[in-house]
Write a structure and sequence with these properties.
Layout lengths: L4 E4 L7 H13 L8 E4 L1 H4 L6 H17 L8 E4 L5 H10 L4 H5 L2 H12 L6 H15 L5 E3 L5 H18 L7 E3 L34 H9 L17 H14 L3 H5 L5 H27 L2 H30 L6
Helix pairs in contact: 3-12, 4-7, 4-13, 7-8, 9-12, 10-12
This protein binds tryptophanyl-5'AMP.
Tryptophanyl-5'AMP binds next to β1, α1 and α7.
Length: 332
């Protein structure tokens, strides 16, 4: 039996990168593993400057989109991180195991701290400890596999280190998890800046395809994607990042291999046109289902309520065990 856990952070509208790199696989494959859990990690959204009303809105929207993308609450558990106290409870004691140096080495911390600094803001302490909360998310459930895009590999690696260290120091408590990544589209790039990841909280909006973009907006964004100075359609991440990104997106949407597809196209225009239509078709059923679910918010709320109950039951024994192992007195 494989336990699967993954999450999505409500800091922006979900993107094609989230979908191809993670969500689509969760629905198609991962949820069918025993006891898979998918979490809207709202506590993580508080690690950067945010508008509370927007976090609430985006959390509801992320939950609705996870269901719209095919997660079935009869098959897996979908819930909101802040509804299950065990995450914060475990995070604190894992902070007593992880080190300051480990946190400061995290690429995402360095990038985000620099961005916050450039905006004139201060860096919240929780941004530094972000990976520990993520480790708590994963370790609380005895997770074996964490299906994520490439950008989360370092965080999962840190989670492994923390689990191993805890087990060695305090006795076997945690399963040591491993990250799994899709073969294609593990890192979808920004269409306007194909050397940077397509991130939902980025500033380069025209280069980001959102899951809820209307078909004509999707077409416009893909047709305006930055391509490379050469003319032939070649698969080459370093030399031809723009074209390679389109080939990856097309292959991920249609099935197939991006390198093989590069032989099929003689012009960038034709590649863009087919990619745009492929993305529109992939998003269509998600958008349709999202519309239906928006008409029934009580259903989504019910899913989250029972999801949190189930998650709490799954997490509590292991978090309690971690507390006891570290020397904390049991209450009463
Ligand atoms: P987040 O919200 O940034 O992204 C959610 C998932 O989408 C993947 N992803 C991408 N994949 C390919 N190309 C892209 N451009 C792209 N952008 C995002 C991410 O890799 C991720 O799988 N720290 C996590 C949330 C988190 C989490 C966890 C994940 C918190 N606790 C525990 C797994 C397990 C994050 O910010 O994901």
């Amino acid at each position: 039996m494989t336990r699967v856990f993954s999450g999505v952070k409500p800091t922006g509208h979900l993107t094609l990168g989230n979908y191809l790199g993670a969500m689509r696989r969760w629905a198609a494959v991962d949820q069918h593993q025993a006891d898979a859990l998918f979490c809207i990690v709202d506590l993580h959204a508080l690690t950067v400057d945010h508008d509370p009303a927007r976090v609430r809105r985006l959390s509801r929207q992320a939950a609705t989109l996870l269901l719209a993308s095919g997660l079935d609450p009869e098959v897996c558990t979908v819930f909101v991180q802040s509804h299950v106290d065990e995450h914060a409870r475990l995070s604190y004691v894992l902070e007593c195991v992880a080190t300051d140096g480990e946190m400061r080495r995290m690429i995402q911390y360095k990038e985000k701290a620099a961005r916050e600094g450039a905006r004139g803001g201060s860096v919240r302490l929780s941004l530094l400890t972000y990976p520990v909360l993520m480790a708590a998310d994963i370790l609380a459930y005895g997770t074996d596999e964490v299906p994520v895009g490439d950008d989360q590999a370092q965080h999962v690696e840190l989670t492994r280190d923390v689990a191993v260290r805890f087990n060695q120091r305090y006795g076997h408590t945690f399963v040591v998890p491993r990250a799994t990544h899709p073969k294609i589209a593990a890192r979808v790039m920004n269409l306007q800046e194909p050397t940077a990841k397509m991130g939902k909280s980025d500033d380069v909006g025209p280069g980001i395809v959102y899951l809820l973009d209307e078909p004509d907006i999707v077409r416009k964004k893909v047709m305006r994607a930055v391509t490379d100075s050469g003319r032939d359609v070649a698969y080459d991440r370093e030399g031809r990042p723009g074209v390679t990104n389109l080939l990856e997106i097309l292959a991920a949407c249609e099935g197939g291999n991006p390198e093989d597809l590069s032989g099929v196209y003689e012009s960038y225009g034709a590649l863009k046109k087919d990619t745009a239509e492929a993305v529109v078709e992939v998003l269509r059923p998600v958008q349709e289902r999202h519309k239906e679910l928006c008409a029934d918010p009580a259903y989504v709320e019910g899913v989250l309520r029972s999801g949190a109950e189930r998650a709490r039951e799954m997490a509590r024994p292991r978090v309690d065990a971690a507390y006891r192992a570290m020397g904390l007195l049991p209450p009463g």
